[in-house]
Amino acid sequence: MKRKTSTFKFIVFLMLIFIALVVSFCMQDRKVEIPMEGDMVVWKHGASLIVKAILGPRREHVIINPKVDSFFYEPKYEKYLGQFSIDYKPKCFSDLTKEEYVKFESEYGNRSHGFKKQHYIEFNLMLNGSEFGATDRGVYSSEALDDINQVKVIVYYAGNVNRTSSLYENIKESDGIYDSNVSSEYKMDCYKFSRSRLDTYSCYGKSNYDKDFGVLISVSSDGRWIEGYSIEPIYGGIKVFYRMDKSNIENWKEVDSTIWNLLECWNVSPLDMYNSTVN
Known about the structure:
Number of helices: 6
Strand order of the largest sheet: 3-4-5-11-10-9-8-7-6
Strand content: 25-35%
Distance between the termini: 72 Å
Largest sheet: 9 strands, mixed
Order of helices and strands: HEEHEHEEHEHEEEEEH
Oligomer: single chain
Number of strands: 11
Shape: globular
Number of domains: 2
Radius of gyration: 23 Å
């Protein structure tokens, strides 16, 4: 009985070695280099938003919890474009031709895009002429910002959902109270919500990028930052979310316009931005 058990364990051991070798071979065959500053990348957010850009400065990895860090940290697959000055003017590339687009879609579908999590387009902006290093602390983290003049931006797929202006109409019809003083200070339409011991403000402003676009900003009365987001039917439907320090709220229009202008410049998809047809 002992001999059979030992033989079984040995067979299992050999099988595990074989599986490890196969996995190792496959991983080498699909080797992915970690993107570096100055590299040109072409990353797909969706069919109507394919980003082609020269990468900016890389960010420092911050280990929050060593026990789970290896489960989520995938620098090879992150779509972090870099940290740029608010007045940064990137190189804009021509749209892909129909033939290039078909080839790209075919090749992109055969690549590895991460094993542990979904990766979104990310980039940072720097305000007021500041220069500083960036970390990869998540945009929703309580310690997200690396500097008072930093804006962290992330782009999500939203699909066919209500746009920002529709969400603003919902705010107006809710139990919020319009605050003329805060609205005048922020140059937005701001509604006050009293929740627990905190007064929270939801503000809406129209974008300079497109007359039909808008941005919603959440402001906590005792918070250190604000959260801005826009949901628009462009690029197949996207949600742009950003966080910046509360002291820079007067820059919201510039931040909003810069984000949309950068995405437009970086985008090389030949599809129409609104109806997903080839231009």
